[in-house]
Amino acid sequence: MTSQIIPVEPFDCVVFGGTGDLSERKLIPALYQRQVAGQLTDPTRIIGASRADMSSEDFRNFARAAINEFVKPEERIDAEIEEFLQRLHYIAVDAKGDKGWGELAGFFQDAAPGRIRAFYLAVSPSLFGDIADKLKHNGLITGTSRIIVEKPLGRDLASARQLNDIIGNDFAEHQVFRIDHYLGKETVQNLMALRFANSLYEPLWNSAHIDHVQITVAESVGLEGRVGYYNTAGALRDMVQNHLLQLLCLVAMEAPSSMDANAVRDEKLKVLRSLKPITAANAAQMTVRGQYKAGASGTGGAVTGYQEELGSPSNTETFVAIKAEVGNWRWAGVPFYLRTGKRLAGRMSEIVVSFKPVPHSIFSESAGQVFRNELVIRLQPDEGVKQWIMIKDPGPGGMRLKHVPLDMNFAGSFNVRNPDAYERLLMDVVRGNQTLFMRRDEVEAAWQWIDPILKAWEETAQPAQGYTSGTWGPSSAIALIERDGRTWHEEEA
What we know:
Rossmann fold; 2 domains; six-stranded parallel sheet; alpha/beta; nine-stranded mixed sheet; Dihydrodipicolinate Reductase, domain 2
């Protein structure tokens, strides 16, 4: 089975922060993969821009090293690497000063009119406004320009609005691509196909048939050099406000009228606006904050606690569990349990839709327990979809029930490479397709729900409860779901 690759028209992509971590680990490897797939057409150019003084040749060497480190050996093709590197250029640019902007403007003089320009801001959000203004001041923004910004989009509603205003002064909303790499994951998009391309699920996708939903994004790593940022952000801002709420929206949204970007985002926005508020009155019952202590990492080695890594006392949460509720007809009474954290027992992201049990079991006790049906959408690792059902255990020994998965593993079902999320999203930017990107009002609606939680934690001085590294978080996270008579999903053998 082969995947259909549709080339995109030639474009220029300027990566501000071109020598940074994101560019090295994700953007350069993603663009190289699209070169190999035959998706980049001539004369596409990729321009690295940062403060560092280096030549285009130096930048190509940097990109070559990035490909060698972050692309699998079997996917490194010498001829493709050389062709890709020839697309790369470098200009030293000072975001806050005048250095390099004239040179960057000159670079585009020979470009065909109407050529797509993508400006990727792989830099601190504090520089977004400076760069956007400089692009405008130097006449670099055309009708076919796009600007791509990474999270975090603000620390709260007020700063998100300010950031959106700053970018909106220079770019129209249809030119702004707010990237959330989770939405580029193949399995996340598959959730749309599962729901809206099959008549099997949608009639059951409501409170009459679904008992609850679980969304887990677990990381086994700790801070990994992000100490400064993370200690001021915490897990709620870093993960829940964007990744987890976006996944919740895709599970809970009504069917859009089409796959048109605004039709999809309109429905996601309705979900965000329907979330029941969590305030100081109920935060202690609906949320759990945690912080990892010393213990063992997912790979088995001993690791230090968060405060030891930080080098100072801190109440910043590295784990959050929330019981969220969508206040509308479809989801009335169906809790959405969200959890995310660092230094947990393993790296795993999944959505579990747990259906209600059969209303009455006709089987005797000897047949064994009747488990409820579950749809498990695994985003990483081992991307795939499992539908857990009850069947009879084969054999002549009478009626014995068994809980088994109908398993669709991506790697096993499709003999194609599973592209990284950034590959898909970068090509969508070039195409001008905003379906998988967040609209301004979405970002702000998410903050409108998150802000009162942050305020409640502050007002009630809700502590971050310690949990041992290598476990599934604080015991109160287990209590959060078990007091409702439910348990967190654990993979069955």
